[in-house]
Known about the structure:
Blueprint: H1 2-28, H2 36-55, E1 59-60, H3 64-71, H4 80-103, H5 105-108, H6 112-115, E2 134-135, H7 142-147, H8 151-163, H9 186-193, H10 210-215, H11 240-257, H12 261-266, H13 277-282, H14 303-326, H15 332-353, H16 357-377, H17 387-410
Parallel strand pairs: 1-2
Amino acid sequence: MDTYANMLLIALPIFFVSVLLEALYGNWIKDQKHNFMDTISSLSSGITNLLYDLLGLGIIIVSYSFLYEYLMIFSIQESILLYLVAFICIDFASYCHHYLKHSVNIFWNQHVIHHSSEEFNLSCALRQEISTIVRFGAIFMLPAALLGISPTIFAVLGPIHLFMQFWYHTRLINKMGLLEKIFVTPSHHRVHHAINTKYMDKNYGQILIIWDKFFGTFQPELKEEKPVYGIIRPANTWNPIIINYKHFWQLLKDAYYTKTWKDKLRIWFMPTGWRPKDVEDLFPIKSTRDSKSQIKYQTNNSRKLILWSFFQLFISGSLMLLMFSIASKISNITLFCLAFFLILNVFSYTSMLDGRKKISIITDLIKLAFILYIILTQDFNSDIFLEPYIIIFATYAVISTLATIYFTKSEPQLNIS
């Protein structure tokens, strides 16, 4: 975790500056690729993902360390070649895991957030999940375990491999010649994020595109077929936490309402999007089947609210980094409360962008309760009590709640399209 956290502290500023530069460049060339409420949603999703990972939530079915310890056949000495083999192993495992997430109903819930934006820009790379309850991805690393590649190598390569997937989430870079034959490029990944019939379920590669070419899932971007982005069942919300669980909630409702036990059980493991015939007839869901008829989600928020939401995003990210810096000095329950406070904060201001004013106020009140709990349960005579930091969180909690009340009264009733 320390290695990942240290690399994160370097990568995060680079990511956020890159998103800002992309947006500024779009303004300069008068071809803006950002819808700013969508960008707030994407960056907020990144914050919730990092907090979720920090808390270590989820059940690990099998870990790579376990596979390495009990299934290792060979033992390869550390070398440049070993790192290259390890990188190929992790990229192949990522392809397989990615393919599974797209193919099975229950696993799509872990990935839907990443595809939910109806734009395509660098901020979309940070739309990452908080809905993985059961973790089993290490099973795809079996070849690496058999080869005897140490977990310490993947502790370094894993974050690097993840961060290398950031740059190709852009519409500002065209096709890249010879690189297109081996590596995943922006052109390849635009296809992957598109809902055009011709582009659906293609280009699963993370760094190397060779897996798609080998397994028949490759599709080049075509001049005559402009990619249309989003998901078949539009999210219609800026709230990344709702998006994370929306597909799961739909599966749960369908499993409840369908009449046959067979369908109640198999719905979870059927191809993504499958629904029992009886519930499909009774409760139809609006879908974007024809990409050309897509109507993007939009809310007519005031400029003041959008600027305040950007400020909330900035403060949330700053408080998250502050929390990372003091994580080793505070109790687990305090760490949990601070992390959950920030997740609730994201829920509140993105709900306000959706026009869900009452939900936003209720969430802020719960947020205040978490801070109050921390204050009341801390030992003021102990060195563990970090008074200045708690004051920062508490002050922000009060100010943000007052601002929510202000916008509840000042914002007009939204016309949502």
